[in-house]
Design a protein that fits this description.
The complex is a heterodimer. Chain A is mostly helical. Chain A has one domain. Chain A contains 3 helices and no strands. Chain B is mainly alpha-helical. Chain B has one domain. The mean pLDDT of chain B is about 85. The chains are: A mainly alpha, B mainly alpha.
Chain lengths: ~70, ~260
């Protein structure tokens, strides 16, 4: 059980670490764009939106880091 | 070699080189401080575990997971992982975070090791073995992750592993020649480039996974790389400006209240 917990902690640190927004942001972006693609939005628009949301996630995260004292 | 294979080779080689340099700093500190025999056994054990992880997970993932699901999950993970590398590299390039200091890491590693029990006169030195093993394994896990994800998504596990092996060889040869921490490697530039590649490939594959049919197919990758590169360069400039403005404000405060 301890090994499972330790592996879980390692995985959390590896993928999420101290900036959870960089983990949640791309997942939300993919979910939103997947819904739009399923609703019939053209691929070009969906692709541009996906890249835009990922850039916005990076920008948001950088802003959070810079705001820290 | 196709352009996709070349991109896979370059991305895994660059990502691996960064981690190999960090692992080498630890190994050099252990070897110089406590001797090389047990240290090199620790390195060999670490490399063996990493190779097993790549072969087992890479083969299992590529064999049993449907390609669309694979590209969605792995593409998403590559974006997450790539953003971590890229934003850290942007913060370092903009002056908001100190650059990775291999000389400093080497010195602190040597200081830590000197407080350990003395090296036994004969037999295995488990301190050297453990520190070298952990160093190689922990730094190498990120390489294994990139090799497995990149290799499996592109259907080129062998090419990805070759890229990592080539990078390891180059770092080893350079390390043997200079025999001191590789502090002149442009580590942040490498992380910046690798972060860009991971985010671009991740977006491309995850996009395919959710049903996007990229216009121009593989050419869309180049467009994504260009968009992310331009955005990152703008971000570096903005971070630099924010740091400069913070410095000016601090200087003004110091002038107004010299005792603060």
């Amino acid at each position: 059980m301890n090994a499972v917990r330790a592996f879980g902690a390692f995985l959390y640190d590896f993928l999420v670490g101290d900036r959870p927004e960089l983990f949640v942001g791309p997942i939300v972006a993919l979910a939103v764009v997947a819904l739009l693609v399923a609703a019939g939005v053209p691929s070009l628009g969906a692709g541009v939106l996906l890249a835009g949301l990922i850039i916005a996630t990076a920008g948001f995260s950088l802003g959070l880091v810079l705001r820290r004292p | 070699m196709s352009s996709a294979a070349l991109a896979t080779l370059v991305a895994t080689a660059l990502a691996s080189a960064v981690e190999f340099v960090e692992a080498f700093t630890i190994v050099l500190a252990v070897g110089v401080t406590r001797g090389w025999r047990s240290t090199l056994l620790g390195v060999a054990a670490g490399v063996a575990v990493l190779a097993i992880l790549v072969v087992v997970f890479g083969t299992a993932i590529a064999t049993f997971v449907p390609i669309e699901l694979l590209r969605l999950v792995i593409g998403g993970l590559l974006v997450v992982f790539g953003l971590q590398w890229l934003t850290k590299a942007i913060l370092r390039a903009g002056g908001a975070k100190p650059l990775h200091d291999e000389d400093g890491i080497y010195r602190s590693e040597v200081a830590l090791l000197s407080s350990e029990p003395p090296v036994p006169a004969s037999g295995m030195d488990w301190v050297s073995f453990t520190v070298a093993f952990k160093g190689v394994l922990l730094e190498g896990l990120e390489v294994a992750f990139i090799v497995v994800t990149f290799g499996a998504s592109a259907g080129m596990l062998g090419t990805a592993a070759l890229g990592a092996a080539l990078a390891g060889l180059v770092v080893l040869v350079v390390a043997a020649l200079v025999h001191r921490p590789l502090s002149r490697v442009p580590e942040n530039t490498l992380k910046f480039v690798v972060g860009l590649m991971l985010v671009s490939f991740g977006t491309f594959w995850a996009g395919e996974g959710i049903g996007i049919e990229w216009p121009g197919e593989d050419a869309a990758l180049v467009a994504l790389l260009g968009i992310y590169l331009a955005s990152s360069l703008v971000a570096v400039a903005l971070v630099r400006r924010a740091i400069d403005a913070r410095g000016v404000r601090a200087a003004r405060r110091a002038r107004v209240n010299p005792m603060s």
